[in-house]
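Continuing from the previous page...

OK, I double-checked the sequence for ABC-type xenobiotic transporter against my notes and this is the correct one:
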Amino acid sequence: MIPSNKLPSNYYFFFFWNPIFLKGSSVFLHLVLFFGLILIWFYTKLRGGHDENPKNRTLRYYKPVFFSSMFLSLYNLVLCLLDYFYWYKSGWTDEKLGTLLDLAIRALAWLLVSVCLHTELRHSSYLQFPLLLRVWWGFYLVVSCYCLVVDIVQWREGLYLPIQDLVSDTVYVVSGVFFCFAGAFGKVVKEDADLQEPLLDGNGGVDSTNVQKSETVSPYLKAGLLSKLNFSWVGSLISKGYKKTLDLEDVPPLSGKDDVNESYEIFRCSLESSKSGSGRKVTAMVLVKALLSIIWGDVLLTGFYCLVYTLASYVGPSLIDTFVQYLNGKREFKNEGYVLVSTFFVAKLVECYGQRHWFVKVQVVGVRMKAVLMESIYNKALTVSCQSKQGHTSGEMINLMSVDAERVGHFSWFMHDPWMVIVQVVLALVVLYRSLGLASVATLIATILIMLLNYPLSILLEKYQENLMESKDKRMKATSEILKNMRILKLQAWEMKFLSKICELRDNENGWLKKYLYNLAITTFVFWSAPTFISVITFCTCMIMGTPLESGKILAALATFRILQEPIYSLPDTISVIIQTKVSLERIASFLCLENLDPHTTEKLPTSMSELAVEIIEGNFSWDPSATSPTLKDINLRVNHGLRVAVCGIVGSGKSTLLSCILGEVPKISGTLRLSGSKAYVPQSPWIQSGKIVDNILFGREMDDEKYNRVLGACSLKKDLEILPFGDQTIIGERGINLSGGQKQRVQIARALYQDADIYLFDDPFSAVDAHTGSQLFKECLLGLLECKTVIYVTHQVEFLHAADLILVMKDGRILQAGKYNDILASGTDFKALVGAHEEALSAFDSIEVGAMNPIHNKELGVTKASEESNGGQSDKIDETTVPKGQLVQEEEREKGKVGFSLYWKYLTTAYKGALVPVILICQILFQVLQILSNYWMAWATPVSPDGAPAVNGTTLIIVYVALALGSAFCLLARSTLVVTAAYKTATSLFGKMHQCIFRAPMSFFDATPSGRILNRASTDQSAVDVNIPYLLAQFAFTTIQLLGIIVVMSQVAWQVFVIFIPITAISLWYQQYYLPSARELSRLIGVTKAPVIQHFAETISGAVTIRSFDQESRFCETSLKLINSYSQPAFYTAATMQWLSLRLDLLSSITFVCLLIFLVSIPVGLIDPGISGLAVTYGLNLNMLQGWMITHLCNMEKRMISVERILQYTCIPSEPPLVIEGNRPDQLWPSCGDVKIQQLQVRYALHMPLVLRGITCTFQGGKKTGIVGRTGSGKSTLIQALFRIVEPASGQIIIDGVNVSSIGLHDLRSRLSIIPQDPTMFEGTIRSNLDPLEEYSDEQIWDALDKCQLGDEVRKKEAKLESPVTENGENWSMGQRQLVCLGRVLLKRSKVLVLDEATASVDTATDNLIQQTLREHFSNSTVIIIAHRITSVIDSDMVVLLSDGLVEECDSPLRLLENKSSLFAKLVAEYTTRSKSTMIS
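Thanks. Re-ran it with the corrected sequence; updated structure tokens here:
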């Protein structure tokens, strides 16, 4: 601009060319805009806010206008700071003050425009930009052009023209042209909702769905400018949390991109488009690109906030020297002191607001990223092929969701750190150059050296982090498998062996954890000591170069080093998090790269287009496409609509694989597979969701009462539901744990029937139910409700084959025979062998006159099909008053109220009884004292001004400073090492205690506790204890000590500040107490809402085949979205509430700081030492930061300590009775005879539940074979559980060879008994480890057992023999083969008492006969107790016990019971033989 004293004389209207006038006009114009926008905001609020549904409206050019406004604000701010601190150092004139004011007002006005655009106009009722803005932009362009013309005239006159003025005016003109263009053409470009609503709502009113949406919109989106600025929009939630304990329904919903429904859709589309451009492979970079699509706007905004915060934070250090000189009496102009105080205060305000909005936004970004990644992992797990899934166990997949997605979300805190470090270093060098000149080059070199030092450390950290995650995956995989099979482990007395396996895996993990933590400690030490190291190098360089050291310049440098300490200190954390995030992204990307099920395996045709329901032409299918021999070979099959097809064959012949092939689960090698119509599938192993019975049956369909009752009747479920206390509203435990095997099977049959599909696939569903129920199900379901449907059923029961229109006989993966019953019976040997084995089993009944007996009826036996086989069983109706307590699975327990001191005490004293804690605190106190002393020394020993004399010579100055610096560094090293040592010991101890208690918990705990809750503690909570919590505790303690150090330094200069400090502290504490109840409960809700996400994911993994078979993927994905949203809600509001508190505390601490400054500038010159006063101001600059960090650490600590709280909950689980009672151990040979006497045995599953066994008395003679029979729910399996003390008797006793089983240790009991359970269980590992997990037997003994259980030849075929791999849950072995492995275990053990709990249900009759023959040969002298649904399995027993309704109805030899024609057992046999033989009549 033209200086006022050099105006050209030929200008008549020289006044209008005066710089004062031009600047004044600009200031006035921008103030009009400023206040105009504020008035518009108030008017909008008074008028009633926003449009009902502005979500679908977007203004054209909104984003360019928004970012241009942000740029202008930042541009003017930078010019203002440069003018103030650099260009105008020579002095101030009216013109310069006018320029400075103009730039400041411009920066403020354009910032307000940006905020208004983002908050008020982004989605609003405006059809174009507001009139005020458009008119103002016109004036703005006119004034900018006018100023540029003045610049051009000045240049032509040859007058002085500052280059920044010419550049600025050019920028203003260009921006003005753009804004005018945007104002003229910036209309609404998307208004779908407004165009459609009148059509949808004929009355012209507001659609009810839109009203509902507006009521559930996030309060953040409804908040106004000031509300968002001060976080007042979250105040109502904090108020509610202060008055009552918050529950999930109290937490407002999420809207916009914070709602995972919206953000995931954007993410998915971006991922698909990125994949198409990268060879359809998901990489870490592709994931990053897709994540940016949902967060890029917030990333830019947080970057802006971060930059504003960084710039504002360096205002203080740049003014320190000026302030010290002012205190020393050097005044530049009148009221300079108050101008300095005002500048300090404004800078602090900008810093506070910038930091708080930066922090809340990065957390919101983290929540969003975590949510979409969790949903992506869920969706992938639902579609991944079975072959790909074998390489990733459920534990690994759960880790991806619970740990890796969490880590990527946590990265948002650090995403701006890399570039922010560079900006801060540059700003620091500018400040240092002004203070110390060329010595700042040494600062740069020292900083670069320290940053280069991180390279080898980061390489090590990455290596340790990868290995740590791998070892954690292995542990979680094993833990997940063990939790699923805990019942069999307890029955076999193996739980402590498997606990030692978990401990071994944890030891391996601990090795990497220790390396990781100690490496992190070294990194922390290096970077904490970095500022001291840099200051020593810088000051030494000053001494060598002869640069005079004055206290003001030194304090400015120290203040800069302290600010620089934050990014340098956070750099190791940033490096660590970047490494963790990179590893996690690569793991997630690797999982997302897995091959999906091939949708082209099956050709799906409409029902009307094909006469065939299923058609396979020359089909070859293989679970492993790379295998030389396919699993199914040369399959040709044509099934017409309405046909019943039976599939039979020996164990391992490929029956279940054929059904999987029809479902599209098995990769197709060649051939054609066509399906016509919808399908429903009933797997061999029941898959039941945790939740209500009715929800399991409906499975996403609408309730149709008539059809529902018809299905219940067909599946014989009505009686069961009458007995259950809540009927069909009864909550089923995880994996249907509180239902018997038969009930689970009938529930999943009901689920299939209710779907009313076209094609039904049944995989041996009748094996888990008794003979009568099986017959009834076959008749009512397959021959009744499904009479007109296409049904393909696998069965081992020959009696069900006659009703089939087509029978397929399978062997070695081929369809060996196909045809009608009589046709294939006459034409082949394999089918004849199956039928022959069945007839051989029935031959035991030949001596019985079947016709003399009447078939049994339900009412005669008085059966109650209650849920008694597992926890929750009962046989009587529960009184209505007990209903609230009757559900087995309760909501997850969560503590309420304050995290007590006792919790901290338990945590701190876990390692070495807390001995290291005081040592760590002493080290930190010494570090802080030495730091303060070193700074005090530099401020005291150097002169205030160039003409002052130093107190000591330069050598002494540096030697003392270096000595103090070395002392503080030593304390820092000791502190870092001790923190890691205590953290490692504590994590190890808590892990051991929790797992010991979990493994010693009674079976009722596992029945009532979903495994997701346990896995959540073993993964997420344990990770927090391993790494996060010790550092949070340490940081809180260290920050508090630093804060106390600042208060001490400030009080040395002006103790009067305590008059302000004490009430400010009181208000701060009140705010904290007001906030903490909400923060605590929100944090607990995060933990509580995460478990259902993990549980739903785990259930989906195990039931993926069933879900896909019903085409229910979309519904399960929607459920996952809802659960993830529920998990994200408290996380979102946790971030907002924390910044609500932090902002208020920052403002309060800023008041304290300003009061100190006002006191210092108000006292006369010479009353206090300017150097020491400057030191107090230097420390005071960090007051708000440290106070904010202290409260942040405190709140984070309280929230994270909930992980300790949750782990400690599981260290207090009631334990089972002792494993060994040393004073009462049985003889080594016990039991020698095997006599089992049961006397008045009564059993209930819980105190509030009725008796299941109601006074059983009977004797199982030693060396004899006893069969236990009865309808489903009569108490058979409960009796076995009582024998093994899985459930303790309410009264009565069980005596084996004279020893009361309740008087000895559990392992002494269970290890002497053997059992083949109803659900065959195999663990991931090898055949050897599955047969002999305790490693007690030789190879010869193992091979002998395999041969006896008919598996020897099968194992010899495999290349690895005994080391042949077994995948998770034994999925690479058929159900029948798994049952034979269980037989092999008992053959190795050779116990005197053997129990078979429906052990032959999963094998064909021929294999059943072989098993029975094996038992007769090798257990002829043992007591064998058999629970069986096949009467043939118990007919050759020495004694039969018939249970009904928890009582012994009959107990005698089979022969005597059969001789008595009126006995219930005789009628049961008559029914079985009648059914079996009637089907053989051709």
